[in-house]
């Protein structure tokens, strides 16, 4: 437990200012996320140094396709979340009280040092890392001082001030834009679309970002919604990679899995506005990078090869491909 950042005292309560929910928390109670508690008029983080999961992953699994392709990253997570999505993939740590073990910032960095040389750093993921704010700041700062990279896999439901502070120690983010309607965010996620869009727009000016949208049949997969999402993201930056992820039944939602044809249709539609659109959770398709200028296959993730010059240009036409960091796949 550690005293929290981003809160204000009130008479008989405290106001949490970490996310747009702005919970007013009475003494002895916790906020919506369950991990920030008012104890005698001060706000404390209950999950500081509490880890639920730890694994070495390909960086592509975050998913990040334009950030050090071919490298691995140490993924760690805690418990708690400031949204409550009916289809939550990690509900067992986000919305219940899981078993945890202590992992200090120093121990987390030591774990990186014990990994293979291919490991670039640490990713804060699994549950929502912004509600692990104090731990993320301390651990990411220590990682940076050791020359490691830092990644945040987040729902983007965070206030501007905390986001700006996170961006001083985070190299890359994958941000979920769960839908492009207020109704979906309100009724299915207990959140606000506008707050997430503001976070994406701000983070895009400060670090490498990629976007993930899970397509849920009949809920957020219409042609008009895909078009609105991609028009908006084009206005932020058409080179931001978009990952369209296939939904499977989970937690409180038992709709059938998203049809493969829906995923492919959405990808084709998104490519009218964005240069790099990928499909996730659908085997054998949608993970390769093609040059938007000439159509050349420049990063083949199935065979772990690439056709890029040393300065990151397409070997066929010379167009610059926006990839942050060296590509570790074999040059073909």
Task: Walk me through this protein's architecture.
It is built from 8 helices and 20 strands. An 8-stranded mixed sheet has the order 8-9-11-12-13-14-15-16, with helices on one face. Strands 17-18-19-20 form a 4-stranded mixed sheet, with no helix packed on it. It has a 3-stranded antiparallel sheet with strand order 1-6-5, with no helix packed on it. The chain has 332 residues and is an alpha/beta fold. 23% of the residues lie in helices and 24% in strands.
Topology:
Blueprint lengths: L1 E2 L3 E4 L2 E4 L7 E3 L9 E4 L2 E4 L4 E2 L1 E6 L13 E6 L13 H4 L6 E2 L2 H9 L5 E6 L8 H13 L3 E6 L5 H7 L5 E5 L5 H8 L3 H11 L4 E8 L7 H14 L5 E5 L13 H11 L6 E4 L8 E2 L6 E4 L4 E2 L23 E2 L1
Parallel strand pairs: 9-11, 11-12, 12-13, 13-14, 14-15, 15-16, 19-20
Antiparallel strand pairs: 1-6, 2-3, 3-4, 5-6, 7-10, 8-9, 17-18, 18-19
Helix pairs in contact: 2-3
Low-confidence stretches: none
Q: What is the share of helical residues?
A: 10-25%
Oligomer: single chain
The CATH level-2 architecture of the largest domain is identified as Alpha-Beta Barrel
User: Structurally, how many domains make up the residues?
Assistant: 2
Summarize, please.
This protein has 332 residues and is of the alpha/beta class. Helix content is 23%, strand content 24%. The chain folds into two domains: 2-45, no CATH class; 50-287, Alpha-Beta Barrel (TIM Barrel), CATH 3.20.20.70.
Summarize this structure as a short list of keywords or feature phrases:
alpha/beta; globular; TIM Barrel; about 25% helix; about 25% strand; about 325 residues; 4-stranded mixed beta sheet
């Amino acid at each position: 437990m550690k005293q929290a950042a981003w809160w204000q005292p009130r008479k008989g309560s405290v106001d949490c200012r970490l996310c747009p929910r702005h919970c007013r928390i009475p003494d002895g109670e916790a906020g919506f996320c369950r991990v920030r508690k008012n104890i005698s008029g001060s706000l404390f983080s209950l999950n500081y140094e509490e880890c639920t999961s730890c694994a070495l992953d390909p960086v592509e699994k975050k998913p990040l396709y334009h950030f050090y392709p071919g490298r691995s990253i140490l993924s760690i997570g805690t418990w708690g979340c400031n949204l409550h999505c009916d289809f939550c993939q990690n509900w067992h740590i986000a919305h219940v009280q899981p078993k945890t073990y202590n992992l200090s910032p120093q121990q987390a960095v030591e774990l990186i040092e014990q990994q293979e040389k291919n490991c670039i750093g640490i990713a804060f993921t699994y549950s929502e890392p912004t509600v692990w704010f104090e731990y993320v700041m301390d651990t990411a700062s220590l990682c940076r001082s050791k020359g490691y990279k830092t990644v945040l896999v987040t729902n983007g439901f965070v206030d501007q001030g905390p986001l700006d502070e996170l961006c001083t120690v985070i190299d890359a983010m994958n941000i979920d834009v769960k839908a492009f309607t207020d109704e979906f965010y309100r009724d299915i996620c207990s959140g606000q679309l506008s707050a997430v869009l503001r976070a994406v727009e701000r983070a895009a000016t400060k670090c490498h970002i990629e976007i993930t949208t899970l397509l849920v049949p009949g809920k957020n997969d219409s042609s008009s919604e895909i078009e609105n999402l991609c028009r908006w993201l084009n206005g932020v930056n058409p080179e931001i990679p978009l990952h369209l992820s296939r939904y499977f039944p989970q937690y409180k939602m038992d709709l059938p899995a998203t049809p493969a044809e829906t995923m492919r249709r959405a990808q084709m539609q998104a490519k009218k506005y964005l240069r790099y659109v990928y499909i996730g959770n659908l085997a054998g398709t949608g993970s390769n990078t093609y040059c938007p200028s000439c159509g050349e296959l420049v990063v083949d993730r199935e065979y772990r090869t690439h056709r890029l010059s040393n300065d990151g240009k397409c070997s066929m036409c010379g167009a610059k491909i926006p990839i942050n960091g060296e590509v570790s796949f074999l040059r073909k």
